[in-house]
């Protein structure tokens, strides 16, 4: 589903090159729930933005659902983001001027979907997250947990192949975080592929697999020791 | 199209939206009316007078210490001298001429027994040289004969036996057929009077006044075969081709050489017809320029307002734009979002503006002798304002479309 090989991301200034990701390798299979952890500045968010085609990368290869994305133009990347990826952001990123219904509708409109189908999908997604009754509310009228549920509904409504979550519970209290996490687990059980960036070890432990990033490189904690050894060799090299 | 969500978002930004829409509305209302006024003034500025304008020189003359007989004698001497000047094609003497600013007008009737004239018309004292001196074009009938010219006192007006009238006046008084050979009655409201036979018709001859009040009879002129024995009058001198500039200096010199007992005002005393036109329409031209400047300033302010508000909104919604990009919006989607948003605000503005434009015009019509605004101006104004809005919003909208999708992951 998501495969990056020898991928690198370099930020260049006139005097210095900074590697955010270096010889980065990861392979997420369809239906997996992968938690990506790592200390601040390790490259977690850079990985997620590249995985979500929000940013380009400098070198290496990235296959998403079988498509090599490095040569795609901006429009093609937008189309893939719209059709194959669902985003869940730490800050929810709902559009404050739109009500819940209209927020969930945003990616469906960009897909050019017909009104009747949009409506069906929006209501299904809102029911899925338990917020159908709040369709006419504005984000500011909802709690943090409810806003994140709306964001999840927005991500789900387009039936994406991959869900990318960036610290989805980072802005929530414990109780709300638990509710959101349970929802993600439920979605995963139904067959969704989820990649979740978090620095919370407890949340990470609930994922199927943990990938640890340090200094822009992957350390897969849950795979065979030989993988670590291999990765370490690559890192050393 | 994204109209519904854009409208929903605009509802949450009522103040900015309403202010810009109102600005567009007021601009449309003022610009439509201003352009209409400009068009009216410009059409006046270029209206032909019927005079050979590039060849005519006018000289305002006042005799000093002359009774009627002396004045008439001196004027005749002047005319002989002028007609004999090298470079002069012809010369005549009159109480007034087109665009002079002052003159005489009388009612014109075809039935002596009705009190109300058909129209007002200006009276030009003329002789058998006047048509040629003015450069007017006789299109029917004949010119005055030398024996028909009478010298009359400045305060006495008796209807002449013959008149030459302008084509516009001929159509006005005899709409169903030619006025040639038919009688008209020149009077000030009273009944009766002597008939004047139309012996000739000139193609066009404008009245001396350029104000709006004269617009109803702007080409209604009557040439009467009279020469005034009064102290005041104007010489109309038609130059041969290329001689006008030389005559501007030579004519007053000749006149003073002929007789020094005269006053030719230092200002506006000797004027080419180009200067006459220039001065007659000075206020119209000034008004057209003023209105043009007002329009340009208003349009610039409106465009600046749109650029300012949209730039502010783009800055304010940078993260939101990133989120939309992350959710699948293309650059074109973002560009079209802001263009559509502006079009919707603009549409609201021009609907109110069109109503305001018509209302403002009706008020001007009832208070300032304005004509009714042609709807074409409103339509053109609406299209222009909408295009202006789209043009103004383009730069900030393109800036918005360049916001990268990764902006969605950045904390504010």
UniProtKB/TrEMBL annotation, chain A:
Query: Is Lipid biosynthesis one of the keywords UniProt gives this record?
Result: no
Which superkingdom heads the taxonomic lineage of this protein's source? Bacteria
List cellular component terms (GO): plasma membrane; transmembrane transporter complex
Query: Which keywords, in A-to-Z order, does the entry hold?
Result: ATP-binding, Nucleotide-binding, Transport
Q: Name one GO molecular function term.
A: transmembrane transporter activity
Q: Which family does it belong to?
A: Belongs to the ABC transporter superfamily. Macrolide exporter (TC 3.A.1.122) family.
- The protein in question is named Putative ABC transport system ATP-binding protein
Q: Which organism is it from?
A: Frateuria terrea
Automatic annotation (TrEMBL), chain B:
Does the UniProt entry include the keyword Lipoprotein?
no
Q: What is its main location?
A: membrane
- One Pfam short name: FtsX
- Enumerate the UniProt keywords alphabetically: Cell membrane, Membrane, Transmembrane, Transmembrane helix
Q: Name one GO cellular component term.
A: plasma membrane
Residue ranges annotated as transmembrane are 20-38, 287-314, 334-363, 375-395
**Domain ABC3 transporter permease C-terminal: residue ranges:** 294-405
Molecular function in Gene Ontology: transmembrane transporter activity
Q: How does it sit in the membrane?
A: Multi-pass membrane protein
**Per the database record, which ranges form the MacB-like periplasmic core domain?**
19-251
Q: Which InterPro entries match?
A: ABC3_permease_C, MacB_PCD, Macrolide_Exporter_MacB
The compartments listed are: Cell membrane
Q: Do the record's keywords include Nucleotidyltransferase?
A: no
Assigned protein family = Belongs to the ABC-4 integral membrane protein family.
Query: Under what name is this protein listed?
Result: Putative ABC transport system permease protein
């Amino acid at each position: 589903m998501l495969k990056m090989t020898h991928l690198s991301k370099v930020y260049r200034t006139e005097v210095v090159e900074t590697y955010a990701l270096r010889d980065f390798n990861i392979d997420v299979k369809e239906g997996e729930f992968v938690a990506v952890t790592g200390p601040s500045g390790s490259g977690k968010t850079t990985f997620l933005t590249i995985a979500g085609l929000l940013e380009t990368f400098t070198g290496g290869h990235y296959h998403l659902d079988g498509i090599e994305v490095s040569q795609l133009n901006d429009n093609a990347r937008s189309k893939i983001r719209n059709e194959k990826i669902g985003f869940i952001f730490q800050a929810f990123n709902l559009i404050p001027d739109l009500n819940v219904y209209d927020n969930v509708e945003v990616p469906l409109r960009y897909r050019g979907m017909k009104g009747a189908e949009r409506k069906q999908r929006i209501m299904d997604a809102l029911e899925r997250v338990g917020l159908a009754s709040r369709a006419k509310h504005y984000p500011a009228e909802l709690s943090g947990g409810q806003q994140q549920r709306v964001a999840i509904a927005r991500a789900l409504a387009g039936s994406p192949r991959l869900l990318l979550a960036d610290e989805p519970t980072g802005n929530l209290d414990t109780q709300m975080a638990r509710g959101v996490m349970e929802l993600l687990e439920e979605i995963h059980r139904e067959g969704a592929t989820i990649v979740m960036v978090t620095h919370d070890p407890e949340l990470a432990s609930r994922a199927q697999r943990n990938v640890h990033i340090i200094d822009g490189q992957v350390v897969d904690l849950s795979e065979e020791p030989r993988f670590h050894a291999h990765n370490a060799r690559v890192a050393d090299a | 199209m994204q109209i519904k969500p854009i409208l929903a978002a605009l509802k949450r930004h009522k103040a900015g939206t309403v202010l810009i829409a109102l600005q567009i509305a007021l601009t449309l209302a003022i610009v439509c009316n201003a352009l209409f006024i400009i068009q009216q003034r410009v059409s006046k500025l270029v209206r032909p007078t019927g005079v050979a304008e590039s060849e005519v020189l006018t000289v305002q003359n006042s005799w000093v210490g002359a009774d009627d007989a002396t004045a008439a004698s001196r004027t005749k001497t002047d005319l002989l001298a002028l007609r004999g000047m090298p470079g002069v094609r012809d010369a005549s003497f009159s109480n007034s001429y087109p665009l002079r600013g002052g003159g005489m007008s009388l009612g014109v009737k075809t039935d002596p027994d009705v009190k109300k004239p058909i129209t007002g018309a200006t009276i030009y004292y003329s002789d058998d040289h006047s048509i040629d001196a003015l450069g007017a074009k006789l299109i029917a009938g004949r010119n005055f004969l030398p024996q028909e010219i009478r010298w009359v006192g400045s305060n006495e007006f008796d209807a002449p036996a013959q008149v030459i009238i302008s084509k516009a006046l001929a159509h006005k008084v005899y709409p169903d057929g030619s006025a040639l050979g038919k009688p008209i009655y020149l009077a000030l409201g009273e009944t009766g009077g002597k008939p004047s036979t139309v012996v000739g018709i000139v193609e066009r001859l404008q009245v001396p006044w350029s104000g709006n009040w004269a617009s109803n009879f702007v080409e209604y002129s009557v040439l009467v075969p009279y020469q005034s024995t009064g102290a005041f009058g104007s010489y109309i001198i038609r130059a041969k081709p290329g001689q006008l500039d030389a005559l501007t200096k030579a004519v007053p010199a000749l006149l003073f050489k002929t007789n020094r007992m005269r006053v030719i005002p230092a200002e506006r005393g000797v004027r080419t017809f180009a200067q006459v036109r220039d001065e007659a329409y000075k206020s119209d031209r000034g008004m057209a320029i003023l209105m043009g400047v007002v329009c340009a300033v208003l349009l610039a302010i409106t465009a600046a307002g749109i650029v300012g508000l949209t730039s502010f909104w783009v800055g304010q919604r940078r993260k939101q734009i990133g989120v939309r990009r992350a959710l699948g919006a293309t650059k074109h989607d973002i560009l079209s979002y802001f263009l559509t948003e502006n079009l919707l605000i603009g549409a609201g503005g021009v609907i109110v503006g069109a109503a305001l434009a018509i209302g403002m015009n009706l008020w001007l019509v009832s208070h300032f002798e304005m004509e009714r605004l042609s709807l074409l101006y409103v339509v053109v104004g609406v299209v222009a304002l909408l295009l202006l809005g789209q043009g103004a919003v383009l730069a900030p909208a393109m800036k918005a479309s360049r916001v990268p999708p990764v902006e969605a992951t950045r904390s504010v």
